[in-house]
Amino acid sequence: MKELELKYGCNPNQTPASLFMRDGSDLPLRVLNGRPGYINFLDAFNAWQLVREAEEATGVVCATSFKHVSPTSAALGKPLSEDLKRATFTDDIAGLDKSPIACAYARARGTDRLSSFGDWIALSTTCDETCASLIKREVSDGIIAPSYTPEALAILKEKRKGNYNVVEIDPTYVPREEETKDVFGVTFKQGHNNIKLEASILEDIVTANKELPQDAKDDLLVALIALKYTQSNSVAFAFDGQTIGIGAGQQSRIHCTRLAASKADTWFLRQCPQVLNLPFLDSVARPVRDNVIDAYINKNEEDVTADGIWQKYFSVRPEPLTDVQKQEWLSTRANVSLASDAFFPFADNIERAARSGVKYVVQAGGSVRDADVTAAADAHNMVMVMNGVRLFHH
Questions:
Q1: Closest by alpha carbon to 32, among 172, 175, 135, 155?
Q2: By percentage, how much of the chain surpasses pLDDT 70?
Q3: Per-residue exposure over 106-124, b if at least 16 CB sit within 10 Å of its own CB, e if not
Q4: Dihedral sign, Cα of residue 58, residue 62, residue 65, residue 68
């Protein structure tokens, strides 16, 4: 296929819209179902690159949940604990443990469920029936993968009244070395970002503590690769083979760190007993549960435990989650990893990261305050890598 007509551009008024190859060759994809739009494909192409590179770097299948040109999370296909299954609403998925790619998506989708609402999915390997069954019940715009089993494709084609977007990408496709982009009628040109993020870039450890285990290396690589396809500035927290909090698109990297840390804290708190055992009414839909859980943890606009409100969601009134209870649960965390898309300009980032259990850090370095940042990491017995790699993405 030489050209694919899109539903519309970034907005419905931006028509016509299409995909084509500048050299006139065939597109490296097929639309198996639905009619994707412009932003759908921006998500799809960046998401596909992320999962492909993460699998190449770690040797483990990967999935990502993308929303408006940034990942909400990326995750390797590792089995989930029983509590994590409950926290991600996947404890009833038959055969989940036997499907690494389904485990990967369960983790990715379950990290930041509010942001993942209406996501675009990318899988580094074949979408199987188990993964498709998980996807079917989530609110999602579409998926890109190198292949689908017949059973998985049949399930996905039933989604959204038969209009769910399913894209098959040619896994052997390699983009041109040079890429261009038009903005305001002016053409930009640059080399494709071919930087290879692999274990060798984690060798320059600048802290006194130099013990960097394999699990931490995998976490740092997943976080770095996610940042490569996240809108700058950006910071990612990772744990147990997945990113657990991404702060993106902020002018300040300190704000990125605070945002990512807050999301990571919420991810951990979703697994505490008080949250896992919230007595939801059977009538409360999954997206509403996500909102209520976030409000319960973070004390948002609505006090969901207040009289006259809790009755909408719960069979009995739950006790509020106190700051002391939250701190007690969060104090049990350890060995969290953190990656930045560039250098840390201030030690504040390290201080905030330490409060969220960060043990391992990778950042570019090159700031006039590198010594201050390293000293802060040493004060918390962290392991910090300065790899000189900038990952700005716009």
A1: 155
A2: 100
A3: bbbbbbbbebbbebbbbbb
A4: positive
For 336-353, the pLDDT digits (tens) are 999 999 999 899 999 999
Q: Using an 8 Å Cβ cutoff, are 126 and 145 in contact? A: yes
DSSP 269-285: HTTSHHHHT--B-TTS-
Spell out where 213-304 has E strands: 234-239, 242-248
Is residue 193 annotated as a catalytic residue, yes or no?
A: no
Q: How deeply is 203 buried, as exposed, middle or buried, from its count of CB atoms within 10 A (0-12, 13-18, 19+)?
A: exposed
The two tokens of residue 114 are 């509010």
Residues of the chain with confidence (pLDDT) below 50: none
394 is catalytic: yes
* Catalytic residue chosen out of the listed positions 40, 233, 291, 387: 233
Active site residue 67: yes
Length of the chain: 394
State both tokens at 18: 């299409």
The single residue of 161, 189, 196, 394 carrying the catalytic annotation is 394
* Residue 192: active-site member: no
Contact (Cβ atoms closer than 8 angstroms) between residue 205 and residue 192: no
> Among the options 7, 68, 157, 299, which is catalytic?
68
Q: Which helix (H) or strand (E) holds 40?
A: helix 38-58
CA–CA gap between residue 95 and residue 374 (Å, rounded) = 45
Q: What pLDDT does residue 394 have?
A: 83
Report yes or no: 364 and 340 within 8 Å, Cβ to Cβ. Answer: yes
Both tokens assigned to 289: 């549960």
**C-alpha–C-alpha distance, residues 385 and 394, integer Å:** 25
HSE of 326, CA atoms in CB hemisphere, 13 A? 18
Would you say 67 and 118 are in contact if contact means Cβ atoms under 8 Å apart?
A: yes
Q: What is the pLDDT of residue 126?
A: 98
Q: Are 165 and 35 in contact (CB under 8 A)?
A: yes
Q: From the candidates 33, 40, 46, 67, which is the catalytic residue?
A: 67
Angstrom distances, CA of residue 123 to CA of 68, 106, 108, 253: 17, 12, 11, 29
Could you give the CA distance from residue 9 to residue 25 in angstroms, rounded to a whole number? Answer: 22
